[in-house]
Amino acid sequence: MLADAFPMPASASVPGEGPDDNPPVRGQSSKPRTPTSSKAPQAATSAEHFAAAERRPGTPSSTPSLFPGESPTGPTAPRAHSMAAPGRDSELRRTFPAFPARAFRSPASSASPGSAADARFAETWWGNAWVTALEEGALDAKRLARGRSYAEQGHVDAITVTPGLVLAYVQGSRPRPYRVQVRLRTLDDADWARFLDAAAERPGHIAALLDKELPQGLADCGVPLLPGPRDLDPHCSCPDRGHPCKHAAALCYQTARLLDADPFVLLLLRGRGERELLDALSRLSATRAARAAQEQEPAPLPGVRATEAVLPRRLPPLPAPLPVPPHPEQPPVYPAAPGGPDPFALDQLATDAAARAHALLSTGRDPVAELTLWQDAVRLAAARPGSGLTASTRALYASLASAAGRTPAELARAVAAWRQGGLEGLAVLEEPWDPPAGRFDRARPLLLAADLPAFRPWRNHLTHPRGHVQLRLGRDGLWYAYESEPGHDDWWPRGTPDLDPVGALTGLGTPNGL
After folding, report:
1. Mean pLDDT of all residues in 483-490
2. Which of 189, 238, 411, 421 is disulfide-compatible with 401, CB 3.0–4.6 A?
3. Contacts of 258 (CB under 8 A, 6+ apart)
4. Cα(197)–Cα(221) distance, rounded to whole angstroms?
5. How far, in Å, are 110, 240, 296 from residue 115 at the CA level?
């Protein structure tokens, strides 16, 4: 916005600049060029940049590409020349699209590259080391300031980097851009050998290079990776003979941005490509690792000789087992917590687990392992002490019945049967069967001899004529007594099982009362 409000004429120049700032020749337009604000600089990879980068000098274009902040009718209208040729890129030739223009900066902030108000141009320490070499070797700070302004306004076209050379076209104040080269001495084989040794010596150096970073220790390994104040050798087709001219300075500033993004650009300038260096580092690291493995003496392996291993031998006897505890230990007391599990239920489960572990340790078998889910639910409910359905008991019954797919009433009846005779008592409740002749047939005369009426037989059941008392014969040979309201057929286990049917009824009252 400020750039549009304060246009800068193309003929305006910093005092002391070279002959490139002469007035335009006859027949050329002298319209001012207005800088345009842009976002922060970043690597340009859009199709437009690559399309502009692929145009060779002198090749016509149906849609000419404009430099940032310039009008097609101004003196610097279309970019007619470009060093870009991505199709010719190889291991030792890399082409980078032109950087977009940076946000417009006031003249006061860019008056001098070394002023306190001026921010660093590059973002990394090695990029700023490149800028330092440029600025310390320059003979005219004003040309540097103008070159930096050119770089920030996007006047530098696509950049091609080869060993020892950086090339680009830079747009000046005249319509035709200038061809700019910056030369840098390449390293010899001895320097590269020292560099590779320093990089392979520490794995962190290789990891940093793969992350596009240049470690400070690697740059200080005795190999001149970064240029010094007089190492950059600029050449430009403009008539200005300054060292450097503003066009070469602009290219050097933009090269610092390339180094920010990829330090392998610096290594390519010094003579070797990225793939060649990584392959050499891989081979050197593998050679060092193999040499270290050979020099290291193998550690003796523990073990015995094969002849000793196959010899017959007698194993020592196993130690005697520890004595079985006389009874299961009591679990710790679990405190109640808001929203937590019932501490009484936890205590019951822990006590049950201890009892099962004690039985398994003393007898070698788990009495609960073969129970079904329903039978185990009945067992757990029957182990709950107390009688009657309290609030906590109702909650337990509801939870266990839901897990077993039954109702709480069915669970309560099954609990009574379990408490009467355990697993066999539950089977008597739920599984009628046909007993063989013998004990079942002798029960009726025994009941008659005790002055009881004739009980009606059905399978393993003997029912009182009034329908309120019933005897059931279990597979274990015991008689189980049941009671019900007369005529309701709602049988509940009562009393204690007995081998004598009359004895099984004694818990319900005297025989004469029946």
Report:
1. 87
2. 411
3. 96, 159, 161, 265
4. 9
5. 8, 25, 57
